[in-house]
Amino acid sequence: MKLPFFIARRFVAGEDFKQAAPKVKELNQRGLTATLDLLGENVDDRKLAEQTVDEYIDLIRNIRDDGLKSSISIKLTMMGLDIDRDFTRDNLFRLLEVAHKEDQFVRIDMEGSDYTQVTLDLFKEAYQKFGKHVGIVIQAYLHRTEKDIAELAEFGADVRLCKGAYKEPERIALQNMPAIREAFKEQAATLMQHTAYPRIATHDDELINWTKNYAAENKIGKARFEFQMLYGLRQDTCEQLVADGYNVRVYVPYGTMWMPYFTRRLRERKENIWFILSTMFKK
Ligand SMILES: Cc1cc2nc3c(=O)[nH]c(=O)nc-3n(C[C@H](O)[C@H](O)[C@H](O)COP(=O)(O)OP(=O)(O)OC[C@H]3O[C@@H](n4cnc5c(N)ncnc54)[C@H](O)[C@@H]3O)c2cc1C
Question: What residues act catalytically?
């Protein structure tokens, strides 16, 4: 059963680029940058994966043509990771050739733990060829992250740090919030010390305040890192951060395949369910 889009509109900027672009423009006018994400995951058909790459390429050109201040975020399972690793690498490189030519930046989102190693491996290969045009995401809750982040920091990768959104077993990931927050802080400190421009992706006041204090205490300027938040969440906080001189980027998802993303947002915070219910009644 396909649910109507209006229930997701709080978190998803539209079902196509045309609907999402004005939302990005509005964010830009309020001093926020964006990263546009064409929603979808786990494509199991080669043609479809190639079509997705074409759509990502169109997205890069549309961003340029509309003069949006936005990079793009992608998922490797949309480019064939469930089909074949080399096929995915070819698709990723085809996209990055265009990003390189257009001076655009592509961030590879991190998915569930079955994909962590291969995603990091493909990122490292891509980084060697495309350098500053490609970045990666690290999830604080994974037990392996301390080691991964040290390695990424060593070669100065562009990293978005987030808590992690997928349900993982205890042997793979931390399960309780205080432990995840502590891990996040340690990893954020490593990135702040060793990488040029870390991206701190959270809506959590404790972590936002910790980041601000850490930067101030270590004389790390506000222009040397950015906060990232998801479209539709904590808009007042985003604006306050901008007013206080911080850089803030909003992750703006769009597309018809919004259901898995939407479900993750509902699962991670029960207040989001109330948001949706109130949106439905306001329809
Ligand atoms: C830009 C961005 C990109 C991301 N990319 C990925 C990715 O590639 N892979 C991945 O696995 N995950 C990704 N995530 C999701 C991330 O891993 C978390 O699941 C998600 O951000 C929830 O964790 P949190 O720290 O934001 O806050 P939570 O852990 O949900 O909440 C902690 C506390 O923060 C406060 N809070 C949270 N939300 C709100 C709100 N809306 N209003 C008021 N207070 C609030 C509350 O006090 C809450 O108790 C991304 C997140 C962001 C922001």
Answer: 109, 160
Q: Which atom of ligand 1 is nearest to 250's Cα? A: 1
- Residue 15 and residue 38: Cα distance in Å, rounded? 9
Residue 38 to residue 21: CA distance in whole angstroms? 12
Give CA angle at 184 (178, 189), nearest 5°: 130
Q: Could you tell me the residue ranges of all domains in the chain?
A: 13-282
**Using one digit for the tens of pLDDT, what is the confidence trace for 226-270?**
999 999 999 999 999 999 999 999 999 999 888 888 888 888 777
Which pLDDT belongs to residue 274?
Answer: 66
Q: Which CATH architecture has domain 13-282?
A: Alpha-Beta Barrel (3.20)
State which residues of the chain have pLDDT below 70. Answer: 1-2, 273-283
Predicted structure pTM score: 0.94
Q: Identify the CA nearest to 141 among candidates 164, 120, 111.
A: 164
**Residue 41: per-residue pLDDT:** 79
> Separation of 15 CA from ligand 1 center, angstroms?
23
Measure Cα distances from 177 to 48, 125, 181 in Å. Answer: 38, 33, 6
In degrees, rounded to 5, the angle at the alpha carbon of residue 29 between the alpha carbons of residues 27 and 34 is 35
Protein residue with its CA nearest to atom 3 in ligand 1: 201
200-214 per-position pLDDT tens digit? 999 999 999 999 999
Q: Is 234 in the pocket of ligand 1 (CB under 6 A)?
A: yes
Q: Is 137 in the pocket of ligand 1 (CB under 6 A)?
A: yes
Q: Is 202 in the pocket of ligand 1 (CB under 6 A)?
A: yes
Place of tokens 């890069």: 60
Q: What integer pLDDT is reported at residue 276 of this predicted model? A: 65
Tokens of 3: 């649910």
